[in-house]
């Protein structure tokens, strides 16, 4: 693991150093676990008490942090700066070499841009187009006529069905599925007859898609994920859903068919959205929200059915008061001689 | 993309045409987005107002729809007819050719029916039996002694463990897993000792299984999915579960071990069922139901714990009235001089 | 299928036989479905009435079970003993042969212990280390410098990203993913900038991981799963989570980043945990718990937000009484002449 002096680090991060520029750090670590040679950070005020007691050699902090028993690197966004520092201290494994591995299966009619890498066992079907420098890891699958922009990275086992489109710099994690059939049937009197799912999926630039996340192709037209949106693992996006740009969805969220969610949405884990809803821009949803109707953007929602967060908190307060309320009513009844004090 | 005249289309769909039979449509589109050359449909009355304003060339409608500023194709089931029309306008990619791709690995003892297609990287283990015309896409896996009926389609990355059985015309989407071990352990005083999962999975004819859905093999006997049942993505079916025929399960549902659900069940997304339950035929469950006990069929259930839908709606009404109820009791207390109007 | 005499079986299981030692059983079956030649068991008292009516040839029961119309094999733990018996009656398919299949892709720099089996289509990248007798099934993926202990079994389509570590006897089911990037971004004013996920995943000995379960690598340090812990299908474990030893998690649970859960936890299906929590040892959680704060161990929790189970039951009782409470208050108002009996 490489080590780096605090002087070099401060200059890389544009940080103000409070401490000895010649000291070296080797490893990133949490404030509580860090020891000599470790670099830590403080972004969440919840952990501020740990700063005073840390054994880290240096800590990246925000502008308002107090002094501490270690060197400090002051920046505006400690989270972001620590991310850069981790990249310096723990460089990722080298990218796989450009070229098609002899154990890959690439149809001769597929078009591969310069610098593309295709790993062992990966499969690229007829008519697919792979943008320059895109990496298809081992065992990735790209279906017929599917198109990927430049600098994408498709991890092992990810499946891109035929005729879907990915923009530039899209990352698709292992065993994610893009372009599976939308879930649509019509009862014909005897059986659920399949409704053809003839549309596509369009993924914008700079989207990241988590492991085992599934995004269905549209019935017609396109299921769409806006540029810069980040989807965690095990998320389900149904046919004809449209997500705006720069959304962040935590794991295990489900979005039902044809729902549109505006840009900048923040969605907590295990939330679910009914079909055919319209959600405005910059809406935030707590974990486990069950969203059953269209909602304006710019607000924070919670609960099931989802409502503005402060209303959910209020309902929880009312629920908590329920035992006392029943007690009060029983006491009233006893006092008024209306019976034995049971409620009826 | 092929185009088709409204006359031809009406005859294909058995529809009554109100408009010019020589007009041509090229693309399916939603009522709101459609323009000249587009074919749309109206099945959900919620969208009826869009019909008056549509710019589509033609719209498929039900018997009772009013006239509109475009040609109309009247049928009994617009959903179903539109599905057929989409199939005509957007033919799917050609099926892969019959035969075993040179990059597939098929054990010599496996039996492949006539017309079977095995894609690059697919693996078929010893003793497996693949019915005629079944398609194993690239990177699909069929374990030892597993048997598939005719005309199945197994998408990339789907895994069929050893010794499971699929009927005819079963479709298994990408990265679904059938036949993984049931989840069973018994604490032996020191550790969770594994209980062997020696049973199988039996999938009936015409079942469709979504991407990343997992169906565990039975402890003994069989986990079973009834004919014609449709499972969306990311559904979990535990060991020894039995689903009846013609069920429809939306995404991310979980069914715990040994639960039996009757035929024709409709289950909303993210619902969950406890183990060892018996659910009657034709039960319907709203999204996010948490079903904790056995329930008779033929009814609509909601909530957690799941109850008849109208009771859940009633509970929501009572909850909504709770703040006013507390206000009323406080006012009573003030009026009766019982204190300061707080509840205790 | 092999058959076995009750005498042999009793001696294998250390059971006390009540019945004819020469009788033979061939198949395991449930009490209700069993017929002649079948072996069944009674562990859950719920099924005790089925014992009196069973047609099984023999049943494995606990010490206190009454006599029955069949032979009985008495043991202390019928569940465990039946598991052993199933293993005898239904031996699993033979393990794949040791050695590297010609269709596997193993980097020359990977180190394979003696007796390792690598199936067709499996990929092992540079610098990986595979412990002795470990089985990599077809289409399994092991990334650069990842290390597996002895006697592991990695099922088809499972993906082990680079630089993760598995102990001995770890089983990873099909299409599970270990070591995908943790989900971390920081808004830089224009976009969600990716925070490097430079840590690893450490899986202890004797862990079993279900199909399509995903375990993210740490931001730095390690995401950890304690020895003997069992994870069902479709579970999501976020970066830097730490699970203690001997936990049992049912399907579709999600654990958010940096949460620590003590040893021996039992977690019901579809539960979720917020990030940065501390949960003590031997906590139990009902299905669908939503855990939003740190909780001491040794207790049973339910509901959302999760609370001690008895409090959740109490809340459900209060909710059930709510309609009657409203009725009572309305009656009081009418009696006191405070209006029309509506609540306000």
Task: List its traits.
homotrimer; 344 residues; Udp-n-acetylmuramoylalanyl-d-glutamate--2,6- Diaminopimelate Ligase, Chain: A, domain 1; UDP N-Acetylglucosamine Acyltransferase, domain 1; 2 domains; twelve-stranded mixed β-sheet; 28% strand
Structural summary, described in words:
Chain A has 344 residues and is an alpha/beta fold. The first copy, chain A, folds into two domains: 4-89, Udp-n-acetylmuramoylalanyl-d-glutamate--2,6- Diaminopimelate Ligase, Chain: A, domain 1 (3-Layer(aba) Sandwich); 100-307, UDP N-Acetylglucosamine Acyltransferase, domain 1. Helices cover 15% and strands 28% of the residues of chain A. Chain A contains four helices and 40 strands. The model of chain A has no long low-confidence stretch (mean pLDDT 94). Chains in contact: A-B, A-C, B-C.
List the helices and strands and how they pair.
The structure is a homotrimer of 344-residue chains.
Chain A: E1 4-5, H1 6-13, E2 16-18, E3 24-25, E4 27-28, E5 38-41, H2 48-53, E6 58-61, E7 71-74, H3 78-89, E8 99-100, E9 105-106, E10 111-112, E11 117-118, E12 123-124, E13 129-130, E14 135-136, E15 141-142, E16 147-148, E17 153-154, E18 159-160, E19 165-166, E20 171-172, E21 177-180, E22 185-187, E23 192-194, E24 200-203, E25 208-209, E26 214-216, E27 222-225, E28 230-231, E29 236-237, E30 242-243, E31 248-249, E32 254-255, E33 260-261, E34 266-267, E35 272-273, E36 278-279, E37 284-285, E38 290-291, E39 300-302, E40 307-308, H4 309-335
Parallel strand pairs in A: 4-5, 5-6, 6-7, 8-11, 9-12, 10-13, 11-14, 12-15, 13-16, 14-17, 15-18, 16-19, 17-20, 18-21, 19-24, 20-25, 21-26, 24-27, 25-28, 26-29, 27-30, 28-31, 29-32, 30-33, 31-34, 32-35, 33-36, 34-37, 35-38, 37-39
Antiparallel strand pairs in A: 1-3, 2-7, 22-23, 39-40
